[in-house]
Write a structure and sequence with these properties.
about 400 residues; alpha+beta; FAD/NAD(P)-binding domain; Glutaredoxin; 2 domains; six-stranded mixed sheet; 20 strands; binds flavin-adenine dinucleotide
Length: about 400
Protein backbone atom coordinates (compact mmCIF):
# COMPACT_ATOMS: atom_id res chain seq x y z
CA UNK A 1 0.00 0.00 0.00
CA UNK A 2 1.31 3.51 -0.83
CA UNK A 3 0.62 7.06 0.26
CA UNK A 4 0.44 9.92 -2.26
CA UNK A 5 4.21 10.50 -2.31
CA UNK A 6 4.70 6.89 -3.26
CA UNK A 7 6.14 5.94 0.13
CA UNK A 8 5.13 2.56 1.43
CA UNK A 9 3.09 2.91 4.61
CA UNK A 10 2.88 0.68 7.61
CA UNK A 11 -0.17 -1.34 6.58
CA UNK A 12 1.66 -2.95 3.70
CA UNK A 13 -0.14 -6.24 3.40
CA UNK A 14 -3.60 -7.41 4.28
CA UNK A 15 -5.70 -10.07 2.63
CA UNK A 16 -8.55 -7.54 2.38
CA UNK A 17 -8.45 -3.73 2.61
CA UNK A 18 -11.75 -1.91 3.12
CA UNK A 19 -11.84 1.71 1.92
CA UNK A 20 -14.06 3.49 4.44
CA UNK A 21 -15.14 2.66 7.96
CA UNK A 22 -18.76 3.76 7.72
CA UNK A 23 -21.55 1.33 8.66
CA UNK A 24 -20.97 -0.85 5.59
CA UNK A 25 -17.19 -1.05 5.93
CA UNK A 26 -17.39 -1.74 9.64
CA UNK A 27 -19.95 -4.51 9.20
CA UNK A 28 -17.91 -6.08 6.42
CA UNK A 29 -14.78 -5.93 8.56
CA UNK A 30 -16.60 -7.69 11.39
CA UNK A 31 -17.86 -10.41 9.06
CA UNK A 32 -14.38 -11.02 7.65
CA UNK A 33 -12.75 -11.02 11.07
CA UNK A 34 -15.24 -13.64 12.28
CA UNK A 35 -14.19 -15.75 9.29
CA UNK A 36 -10.54 -15.27 10.33
CA UNK A 37 -9.56 -13.15 7.35
CA UNK A 38 -6.73 -10.65 7.79
CA UNK A 39 -8.67 -7.44 7.12
CA UNK A 40 -7.95 -3.74 7.69
CA UNK A 41 -10.00 -0.56 7.26
CA UNK A 42 -8.57 2.63 5.74
CA UNK A 43 -10.66 5.60 6.89
CA UNK A 44 -10.16 9.26 6.10
CA UNK A 45 -12.04 10.48 9.17
CA UNK A 46 -9.98 11.08 12.28
CA UNK A 47 -12.56 9.49 14.57
CA UNK A 48 -15.95 7.80 14.31
CA UNK A 49 -17.64 11.19 14.93
CA UNK A 50 -20.13 12.23 12.26
CA UNK A 51 -21.28 15.60 11.02
CA UNK A 52 -25.07 15.73 10.95
CA UNK A 53 -27.53 13.09 12.06
CA UNK A 54 -27.94 11.04 8.86
CA UNK A 55 -29.60 7.61 9.30
CA UNK A 56 -32.35 7.59 11.90
CA UNK A 57 -32.53 3.88 12.60
CA UNK A 58 -32.66 0.24 11.74
CA UNK A 59 -35.32 -1.78 9.95
CA UNK A 60 -36.23 -5.38 10.82
CA UNK A 61 -33.81 -7.24 8.58
CA UNK A 62 -30.88 -5.12 9.72
CA UNK A 63 -31.68 -5.84 13.38
CA UNK A 64 -31.93 -9.50 12.41
CA UNK A 65 -28.50 -9.65 10.78
CA UNK A 66 -27.04 -8.04 13.89
CA UNK A 67 -28.92 -10.57 16.00
CA UNK A 68 -27.42 -13.35 13.87
CA UNK A 69 -24.03 -12.18 15.17
CA UNK A 70 -25.17 -11.82 18.77
CA UNK A 71 -24.84 -8.02 18.88
CA UNK A 72 -28.43 -6.80 18.34
CA UNK A 73 -28.88 -6.09 22.06
CA UNK A 74 -26.12 -3.49 21.95
CA UNK A 75 -28.20 -1.48 19.47
CA UNK A 76 -31.60 -2.20 20.99
CA UNK A 77 -30.44 -1.05 24.44
CA UNK A 78 -29.50 2.38 23.00
CA UNK A 79 -32.40 2.76 20.58
CA UNK A 80 -36.09 3.50 20.68
CA UNK A 81 -38.68 0.97 19.51
CA UNK A 82 -41.37 2.22 17.10
CA UNK A 83 -44.15 -0.15 16.05
CA UNK A 84 -44.77 1.80 12.87
CA UNK A 85 -42.78 2.92 9.84
CA UNK A 86 -43.11 6.24 7.99
CA UNK A 87 -45.08 6.41 4.75
CA UNK A 88 -46.25 9.40 2.70
CA UNK A 89 -46.25 11.84 5.65
CA UNK A 90 -48.05 9.27 7.81
CA UNK A 91 -47.07 5.98 9.38
CA UNK A 92 -47.90 2.32 8.81
CA UNK A 93 -48.21 -0.41 11.43
CA UNK A 94 -45.28 -2.81 11.31
CA UNK A 95 -46.04 -4.90 14.39
CA UNK A 96 -47.82 -7.78 12.64
CA UNK A 97 -44.81 -8.78 10.54
CA UNK A 98 -43.94 -12.30 11.72
CA UNK A 99 -40.47 -11.59 13.08
CA UNK A 100 -38.98 -11.37 16.58
CA UNK A 101 -37.90 -7.76 16.03
CA UNK A 102 -41.06 -6.52 14.34
CA UNK A 103 -40.39 -2.84 14.87
CA UNK A 104 -38.31 0.06 13.63
CA UNK A 105 -35.42 0.83 15.96
CA UNK A 106 -34.78 4.57 16.19
CA UNK A 107 -31.01 5.02 16.57
CA UNK A 108 -28.95 7.84 15.08
CA UNK A 109 -26.18 6.84 12.76
CA UNK A 110 -23.31 8.06 14.95
CA UNK A 111 -24.45 5.63 17.65
CA UNK A 112 -24.84 2.76 15.21
CA UNK A 113 -21.34 3.43 13.89
CA UNK A 114 -19.83 3.64 17.35
CA UNK A 115 -21.33 0.30 18.39
CA UNK A 116 -20.10 -1.31 15.17
CA UNK A 117 -16.64 0.22 15.62
CA UNK A 118 -16.42 -1.17 19.17
CA UNK A 119 -17.40 -4.63 17.91
CA UNK A 120 -14.84 -4.48 15.10
CA UNK A 121 -12.15 -3.40 17.53
CA UNK A 122 -13.01 -6.31 19.88
CA UNK A 123 -12.49 -8.56 16.86
CA UNK A 124 -9.01 -7.06 16.43
CA UNK A 125 -9.47 -5.30 13.07
CA UNK A 126 -6.98 -2.43 12.56
CA UNK A 127 -8.48 0.89 11.42
CA UNK A 128 -5.98 3.22 9.75
CA UNK A 129 -7.51 6.62 10.37
CA UNK A 130 -6.75 9.92 8.59
CA UNK A 131 -5.91 7.91 5.47
CA UNK A 132 -7.73 8.36 2.20
CA UNK A 133 -7.77 5.93 -0.69
CA UNK A 134 -7.20 7.87 -3.93
CA UNK A 135 -6.73 5.08 -6.37
CA UNK A 136 -5.79 1.50 -6.90
CA UNK A 137 -4.15 -0.74 -9.43
CA UNK A 138 -4.88 -4.43 -9.56
CA UNK A 139 -3.34 -7.42 -11.25
CA UNK A 140 -3.67 -11.17 -10.90
CA UNK A 141 -1.82 -11.19 -7.61
CA UNK A 142 -3.44 -8.36 -5.69
CA UNK A 143 -4.50 -4.74 -5.44
CA UNK A 144 -2.13 -1.84 -4.85
CA UNK A 145 -4.02 0.81 -2.92
CA UNK A 146 -2.95 4.46 -3.12
CA UNK A 147 -3.67 6.87 -0.30
CA UNK A 148 -3.96 10.68 -0.01
CA UNK A 149 -6.55 13.55 0.14
CA UNK A 150 -9.31 14.34 -2.41
CA UNK A 151 -13.00 13.64 -2.64
CA UNK A 152 -15.82 12.80 -5.02
CA UNK A 153 -19.54 12.22 -4.70
CA UNK A 154 -22.19 11.15 -7.19
CA UNK A 155 -25.82 9.98 -7.28
CA UNK A 156 -25.96 6.66 -9.03
CA UNK A 157 -25.90 2.90 -8.85
CA UNK A 158 -22.77 1.18 -10.05
CA UNK A 159 -23.32 -1.04 -13.10
CA UNK A 160 -21.31 -3.78 -11.48
CA UNK A 161 -20.57 -4.40 -7.81
CA UNK A 162 -17.43 -6.32 -8.73
CA UNK A 163 -14.39 -5.42 -10.81
CA UNK A 164 -12.18 -8.44 -10.39
CA UNK A 165 -10.57 -7.97 -6.93
CA UNK A 166 -12.38 -4.73 -6.15
CA UNK A 167 -15.88 -4.93 -4.72
CA UNK A 168 -18.37 -2.16 -4.02
CA UNK A 169 -20.85 -2.14 -1.16
CA UNK A 170 -23.09 0.35 0.62
CA UNK A 171 -23.11 3.96 -0.60
CA UNK A 172 -20.12 3.19 -2.83
CA UNK A 173 -22.44 0.94 -4.82
CA UNK A 174 -25.69 2.87 -4.61
CA UNK A 175 -26.40 6.45 -3.63
CA UNK A 176 -29.92 7.77 -3.43
CA UNK A 177 -32.17 10.15 -1.58
CA UNK A 178 -32.51 9.47 2.16
CA UNK A 179 -36.30 9.31 1.67
CA UNK A 180 -37.53 6.07 3.24
CA UNK A 181 -34.37 5.72 5.33
CA UNK A 182 -32.83 2.67 3.74
CA UNK A 183 -29.23 3.52 2.75
CA UNK A 184 -27.49 2.43 5.93
CA UNK A 185 -29.76 -0.57 6.24
CA UNK A 186 -29.01 -2.01 2.83
CA UNK A 187 -25.32 -1.15 3.15
CA UNK A 188 -25.06 -3.28 6.29
CA UNK A 189 -26.95 -6.07 4.53
CA UNK A 190 -24.66 -5.80 1.47
CA UNK A 191 -21.74 -6.36 3.85
CA UNK A 192 -23.35 -9.44 5.39
CA UNK A 193 -24.02 -10.88 1.92
CA UNK A 194 -20.45 -10.23 0.80
CA UNK A 195 -18.42 -11.02 3.92
CA UNK A 196 -18.66 -14.81 4.06
CA UNK A 197 -18.31 -15.19 0.29
CA UNK A 198 -15.16 -13.08 0.23
CA UNK A 199 -13.79 -14.99 3.22
CA UNK A 200 -14.27 -18.32 1.45
CA UNK A 201 -12.55 -17.04 -1.69
CA UNK A 202 -9.65 -15.63 0.35
CA UNK A 203 -9.29 -18.97 2.13
CA UNK A 204 -9.45 -20.82 -1.19
CA UNK A 205 -12.43 -22.96 -0.19
CA UNK A 206 -14.61 -21.49 -2.97
CA UNK A 207 -13.81 -20.30 -6.50
CA UNK A 208 -13.79 -16.58 -7.32
CA UNK A 209 -17.07 -17.05 -9.20
CA UNK A 210 -18.83 -17.14 -5.81
CA UNK A 211 -18.22 -13.38 -5.67
CA UNK A 212 -20.42 -12.93 -8.75
CA UNK A 213 -23.40 -14.07 -6.70
CA UNK A 214 -22.85 -10.97 -4.54
CA UNK A 215 -23.63 -8.72 -7.50
CA UNK A 216 -26.41 -11.02 -8.73
CA UNK A 217 -28.14 -10.97 -5.33
CA UNK A 218 -27.55 -7.46 -4.07
CA UNK A 219 -27.76 -5.35 -7.27
CA UNK A 220 -31.52 -6.01 -7.64
CA UNK A 221 -32.03 -5.08 -3.97
CA UNK A 222 -30.19 -1.77 -4.55
CA UNK A 223 -32.17 -1.12 -7.73
CA UNK A 224 -35.41 -1.67 -5.84
CA UNK A 225 -34.38 0.80 -3.15
CA UNK A 226 -33.51 3.38 -5.82
CA UNK A 227 -36.98 2.90 -7.30
CA UNK A 228 -38.64 3.21 -3.87
CA UNK A 229 -36.80 6.38 -2.99
CA UNK A 230 -37.78 7.94 -6.32
CA UNK A 231 -41.43 7.00 -5.75
CA UNK A 232 -41.38 8.26 -2.15
CA UNK A 233 -39.69 11.50 -3.21
CA UNK A 234 -42.42 12.04 -5.81
CA UNK A 235 -45.13 11.23 -3.24
CA UNK A 236 -43.69 13.84 -0.90
CA UNK A 237 -44.19 16.74 -3.33
CA UNK A 238 -46.68 19.43 -2.55
CA UNK A 239 -49.09 19.92 -5.38
CA UNK A 240 -52.75 19.04 -5.82
CA UNK A 241 -52.19 16.01 -8.01
CA UNK A 242 -49.56 14.49 -5.73
CA UNK A 243 -51.74 15.22 -2.74
CA UNK A 244 -54.54 13.27 -4.45
CA UNK A 245 -52.15 10.41 -5.18
CA UNK A 246 -50.89 10.45 -1.58
CA UNK A 247 -54.47 10.23 -0.36
CA UNK A 248 -55.20 7.29 -2.66
CA UNK A 249 -52.05 5.44 -1.64
CA UNK A 250 -52.70 6.05 2.06
CA UNK A 251 -56.24 4.66 1.65
CA UNK A 252 -54.87 1.60 -0.10
CA UNK A 253 -52.39 1.08 2.72
CA UNK A 254 -55.26 0.83 5.20
CA UNK A 255 -55.76 -2.68 3.82
CA UNK A 256 -53.60 -5.37 5.41
CA UNK A 257 -52.24 -7.01 2.27
CA UNK A 258 -50.68 -3.93 0.58
CA UNK A 259 -49.52 -2.53 3.92
CA UNK A 260 -47.81 -5.78 4.88
CA UNK A 261 -46.22 -6.09 1.46
CA UNK A 262 -44.91 -2.54 1.64
CA UNK A 263 -43.55 -2.69 5.20
CA UNK A 264 -41.98 -6.11 4.57
CA UNK A 265 -40.21 -4.63 1.55
CA UNK A 266 -39.00 -1.55 3.44
CA UNK A 267 -37.90 -3.78 6.32
CA UNK A 268 -35.93 -6.08 4.01
CA UNK A 269 -37.67 -9.23 5.24
CA UNK A 270 -39.25 -10.08 1.87
CA UNK A 271 -35.92 -10.44 0.05
CA UNK A 272 -35.94 -13.50 -2.18
CA UNK A 273 -32.60 -14.31 -3.80
CA UNK A 274 -33.06 -16.27 -6.99
CA UNK A 275 -31.73 -19.70 -6.04
CA UNK A 276 -34.04 -21.58 -8.40
CA UNK A 277 -37.39 -23.26 -8.08
CA UNK A 278 -38.46 -25.03 -4.94
CA UNK A 279 -39.83 -24.59 -1.44
CA UNK A 280 -40.78 -20.97 -0.63
CA UNK A 281 -37.96 -20.80 1.95
CA UNK A 282 -35.31 -21.25 -0.74
CA UNK A 283 -33.45 -17.94 -1.14
CA UNK A 284 -35.40 -16.31 1.66
CA UNK A 285 -34.29 -15.39 5.18
CA UNK A 286 -34.37 -18.17 7.71
CA UNK A 287 -36.86 -17.27 10.45
CA UNK A 288 -35.49 -17.03 13.99
CA UNK A 289 -37.32 -20.12 15.27
CA UNK A 290 -37.15 -21.40 18.83
CA UNK A 291 -35.89 -24.94 18.26
CA UNK A 292 -34.84 -27.63 20.72
CA UNK A 293 -31.44 -29.12 19.97
CA UNK A 294 -30.07 -32.29 21.53
CA UNK A 295 -28.47 -30.07 24.21
CA UNK A 296 -31.00 -27.34 24.90
CA UNK A 297 -33.62 -24.90 23.60
CA UNK A 298 -31.96 -22.59 21.12
CA UNK A 299 -32.82 -19.70 18.83
CA UNK A 300 -31.83 -20.34 15.22
CA UNK A 301 -30.09 -16.95 14.99
CA UNK A 302 -27.86 -17.96 17.93
CA UNK A 303 -26.55 -20.80 15.77
CA UNK A 304 -25.19 -18.20 13.33
CA UNK A 305 -23.15 -16.11 15.78
CA UNK A 306 -19.80 -17.27 14.43
CA UNK A 307 -20.84 -16.58 10.80
CA UNK A 308 -20.48 -20.21 9.72
CA UNK A 309 -23.03 -22.09 7.60
CA UNK A 310 -25.46 -24.30 9.49
CA UNK A 311 -27.14 -27.51 8.39
CA UNK A 312 -30.25 -27.76 10.53
CA UNK A 313 -31.73 -31.23 10.56
CA UNK A 314 -35.29 -31.17 11.84
CA UNK A 315 -36.07 -34.77 10.94
CA UNK A 316 -34.72 -38.04 12.36
CA UNK A 317 -31.59 -37.34 14.43
CA UNK A 318 -28.54 -38.38 12.42
CA UNK A 319 -30.37 -38.28 9.08
CA UNK A 320 -28.45 -36.70 6.15
CA UNK A 321 -24.73 -37.20 5.78
CA UNK A 322 -22.73 -34.00 5.31
CA UNK A 323 -19.38 -35.41 6.51
CA UNK A 324 -17.42 -34.19 3.43
CA UNK A 325 -18.32 -30.60 4.41
CA UNK A 326 -18.09 -31.08 8.19
CA UNK A 327 -14.95 -28.90 8.34
CA UNK A 328 -16.98 -25.92 7.03
CA UNK A 329 -20.63 -26.52 7.82
CA UNK A 330 -21.93 -26.84 11.33
CA UNK A 331 -24.50 -29.60 11.69
CA UNK A 332 -27.29 -29.25 14.24
CA UNK A 333 -30.00 -31.83 14.97
CA UNK A 334 -33.10 -30.16 16.41
CA UNK A 335 -36.84 -30.41 16.85
CA UNK A 336 -39.38 -27.74 16.01
CA UNK A 337 -43.10 -28.17 16.46
CA UNK A 338 -44.38 -24.64 15.76
CA UNK A 339 -45.62 -22.97 12.61
CA UNK A 340 -43.43 -21.76 9.76
CA UNK A 341 -44.63 -18.30 8.90
CA UNK A 342 -42.90 -16.04 6.42
CA UNK A 343 -43.50 -12.31 5.94
CA UNK A 344 -46.04 -11.62 3.16
CA UNK A 345 -46.29 -15.31 2.18
CA UNK A 346 -47.80 -16.53 5.45
CA UNK A 347 -47.63 -20.17 6.52
CA UNK A 348 -45.39 -22.52 4.52
CA UNK A 349 -44.90 -26.29 4.76
CA UNK A 350 -42.45 -27.42 7.45
CA UNK A 351 -39.18 -28.67 5.90
CA UNK A 352 -37.26 -31.69 7.25
CA UNK A 353 -33.94 -29.87 7.00
CA UNK A 354 -32.52 -26.53 5.90
CA UNK A 355 -29.06 -25.42 4.83
CA UNK A 356 -28.52 -21.91 6.14
CA UNK A 357 -25.83 -19.63 4.73
CA UNK A 358 -23.83 -17.46 7.15
CA UNK A 359 -25.91 -14.44 6.08
CA UNK A 360 -29.05 -16.22 7.26
CA UNK A 361 -30.51 -17.04 3.84
CA UNK A 362 -31.69 -20.56 3.04
CA UNK A 363 -29.54 -22.31 0.41
CA UNK A 364 -31.33 -25.66 0.35
CA UNK A 365 -34.58 -27.05 1.75
CA UNK A 366 -35.11 -30.72 2.57
CA UNK A 367 -38.57 -32.09 1.97
CA UNK A 368 -38.01 -35.67 3.06
CA UNK A 369 -35.01 -36.51 0.87
CA UNK A 370 -31.46 -35.21 0.40
CA UNK A 371 -32.04 -34.45 -3.27
CA UNK A 372 -29.83 -31.57 -4.37
CA UNK A 373 -28.06 -31.26 -1.02
CA UNK A 374 -24.58 -32.17 -2.28
CA UNK A 375 -24.88 -29.67 -5.14
CA UNK A 376 -26.04 -26.91 -2.81
CA UNK A 377 -23.20 -27.59 -0.36
CA UNK A 378 -20.67 -27.50 -3.21
CA UNK A 379 -22.13 -24.37 -4.82
CA UNK A 380 -22.13 -22.36 -1.63
CA UNK A 381 -19.38 -23.83 0.52
CA UNK A 382 -16.92 -25.42 -1.89
CA UNK A 383 -16.21 -28.95 -3.07
CA UNK A 384 -16.38 -31.89 -0.67
CA UNK A 385 -13.27 -32.82 1.28
CA UNK A 386 -11.94 -36.21 0.21
CA UNK A 387 -12.11 -38.79 3.00
CA UNK A 388 -8.76 -39.18 4.78
CA UNK A 389 -6.72 -42.14 3.53
CA UNK A 390 -8.24 -42.08 0.04
C1 LIG B 1 -29.50 13.36 5.62
C2 LIG B 1 -29.39 11.89 5.50
C3 LIG B 1 -30.32 11.09 6.12
C4 LIG B 1 -30.23 9.70 6.02
N1 LIG B 1 -31.17 8.93 6.63
C5 LIG B 1 -31.06 7.60 6.56
C6 LIG B 1 -31.96 6.76 7.28
O1 LIG B 1 -32.85 7.22 7.97
N2 LIG B 1 -31.80 5.41 7.19
C7 LIG B 1 -30.80 4.85 6.45
O2 LIG B 1 -30.70 3.62 6.42
N3 LIG B 1 -29.93 5.62 5.77
C8 LIG B 1 -30.03 6.97 5.81
N4 LIG B 1 -29.13 7.74 5.15
C9 LIG B 1 -28.10 7.09 4.34
C10 LIG B 1 -26.93 6.62 5.20
O3 LIG B 1 -26.39 7.68 5.92
C11 LIG B 1 -25.90 5.98 4.29
O4 LIG B 1 -26.55 5.10 3.39
C12 LIG B 1 -24.86 5.21 5.07
O5 LIG B 1 -24.02 6.08 5.79
C13 LIG B 1 -24.01 4.36 4.13
O6 LIG B 1 -22.99 3.76 4.83
P1 LIG B 1 -21.64 3.41 4.09
O7 LIG B 1 -20.74 2.81 5.11
O8 LIG B 1 -21.94 2.64 2.86
O9 LIG B 1 -21.08 4.81 3.58
P2 LIG B 1 -20.64 6.06 4.46
O10 LIG B 1 -21.45 6.22 5.68
O11 LIG B 1 -20.53 7.21 3.51
O12 LIG B 1 -19.20 5.65 4.96
C14 LIG B 1 -18.12 5.69 4.10
C15 LIG B 1 -16.88 5.91 4.93
O13 LIG B 1 -15.77 5.88 4.08
C16 LIG B 1 -14.93 6.97 4.34
N5 LIG B 1 -14.32 7.23 3.05
C17 LIG B 1 -14.94 7.65 1.92
N6 LIG B 1 -14.05 7.70 0.91
C18 LIG B 1 -12.88 7.28 1.41
C19 LIG B 1 -11.59 7.10 0.85
N7 LIG B 1 -11.36 7.37 -0.43
N8 LIG B 1 -10.59 6.67 1.65
C20 LIG B 1 -10.82 6.39 2.95
N9 LIG B 1 -12.02 6.55 3.54
C21 LIG B 1 -13.03 6.99 2.77
C22 LIG B 1 -15.84 8.05 4.86
O14 LIG B 1 -15.15 8.95 5.71
C23 LIG B 1 -16.86 7.25 5.64
O15 LIG B 1 -16.47 7.03 6.97
C24 LIG B 1 -29.19 9.12 5.26
C25 LIG B 1 -28.24 9.93 4.64
C26 LIG B 1 -28.33 11.30 4.75
C27 LIG B 1 -27.28 12.15 4.09
Amino acid sequence: MHDESGRGVAMTKHAVVIAGGGPTGLMLAGELALARVDVAIVERRESQDLEGLRAGGLYIRTIEVLDQRGIADRFISQGQVFRSAPFARGTLDISDIPARHNYYLGLWQHRTERILADWVSELGVPIYRRSEVTGFAQDDTGVDVELSGGRSFMARQAASYRNNRVLLAGDAAHVHSPMGGQGLNIGVQDAVNLGWKLAQVVHGTSPESLLDTYHAERHPVGARVLRNTMALTALDRSDDRIEALRGMMSELMQRDAPRQQYVAMMSGVDINYDLGEGHPLLGRRMPDLDVVTTDSPQRVFALLHDARPVFLNLGEPGAFDITPWADRVRRVDARYAGAWELPVLGAVAAPTAVLIRPDGYVAWVGEGTDQGLGDALTTWFGPPTAPTGS
